[in-house]
User: Which sequence fits this backbone?
């Protein structure tokens, strides 16, 4: 269905461009008597068609149509095909060669740009997956530690401790589920299936949730928080923003050598909220 729609759109676009070029040449010939620009206008139309449509077909087809249109309406004798006269035939051949070369070069350049864009997209996707890989290891380690503690000390641990460990396992499992869903979204980033779920989120609650998760994994690291004193509610995908902030904080822990202070700041300017993660380490 999509393929048929694409073919129809390419046909419609090519037809509109060719009709526009034909009409423009008629106006120029009727009012300004400038026949010399006729081939150039059609070549420009071929360029636009090749740039906008897919593949080589529409560019080459529009080249043939342009040559026939010039020969029929803009070459003496007007409103008649004449490919017998040497000058008409040579003009048609030269214009056809120029049009086809323009179409082929335009399509090739467009494909090269698309290949570069795809390669850059894959590189960014790989970097993103590597950047969040530790987000998967951390909760798995926590789950393994909690389960091992319960198995090895089942009878010795009090009931409240069992409940606390199971609650931690449940929370980490939910975090993993959300992480996997995000990674699946990344694999679909080149489609229209990814949707942000924006809801009004209280800034203070978001920051508290991030700090609770961070302190659970890094209890020895203190985070200095600076947020507006007034009540702030921001439309956002809270889960994704929370993950981003956790990634930034963890990156500081892992890569900021010699870090002694870690700050999480939020500033509200007009309709925008700006989040900052800063440290005094090296890296």
Assistant:
């Amino acid at each position: 269905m999509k393929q048929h729609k694409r073919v129809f759109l390419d046909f419609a676009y090519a037809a509109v461009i060719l009709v526009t070029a034909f009409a423009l040449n008629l106006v120029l010939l009727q009012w300004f008597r400038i026949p010399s620009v006729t081939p150039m206008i059609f070549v420009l139309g071929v360029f636009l068609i090749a740039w906008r449509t897919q593949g080589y077909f529409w560019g080459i087809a529009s080249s043939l149509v342009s040559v026939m249109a010039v020969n029929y309406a803009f070459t003496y004798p007007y409103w008649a095909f004449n490919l017998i006269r040497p000058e008409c035939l040579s003009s048609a051949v030269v214009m056809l060669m120029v049009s086809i070369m323009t179409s082929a070069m335009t399509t090739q350049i467009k494909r090269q740009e698309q290949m570069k864009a795809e390669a850059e997209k894959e590189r960014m996707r790989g970097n993103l997956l590597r950047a969040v890989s530790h987000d998967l290891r951390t909760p798995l380690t926590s789950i393994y530690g909690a389960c091992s503690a319960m198995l090895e000390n089942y009878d010795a641990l009090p009931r409240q401790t069992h409940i606390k460990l199971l609650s931690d396992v449940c929370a980490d499992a939910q975090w993993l589920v959300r992480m996997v869903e995000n990674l699946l979204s990344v694999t679909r980033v080149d489609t229209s299936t990814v949707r942000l779920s924006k809801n009004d989120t209280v800034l203070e609650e978001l920051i508290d949730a991030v700090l609770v998760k961070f302190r659970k994994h890094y209890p020895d690291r203190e985070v200095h928080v600076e947020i507006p004193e007034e009540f702030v509610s921001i439309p956002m995908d809270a889960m994704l923003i929370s993950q981003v902030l956790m990634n930034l904080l963890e990156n500081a822990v892992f890569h900021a050598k010699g870090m002694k202070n870690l700050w999480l700041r939020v500033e509200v300017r007009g309709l925008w909220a700006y989040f900052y993660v800063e440290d005094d380490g090296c890296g």
About this structure: The chain has three domains: 2-115, 132-187, 199-279. The longest strand covers residues 262-269. The beta strands are 199-202, 223-226, 233-236, 262-269, 272-279.
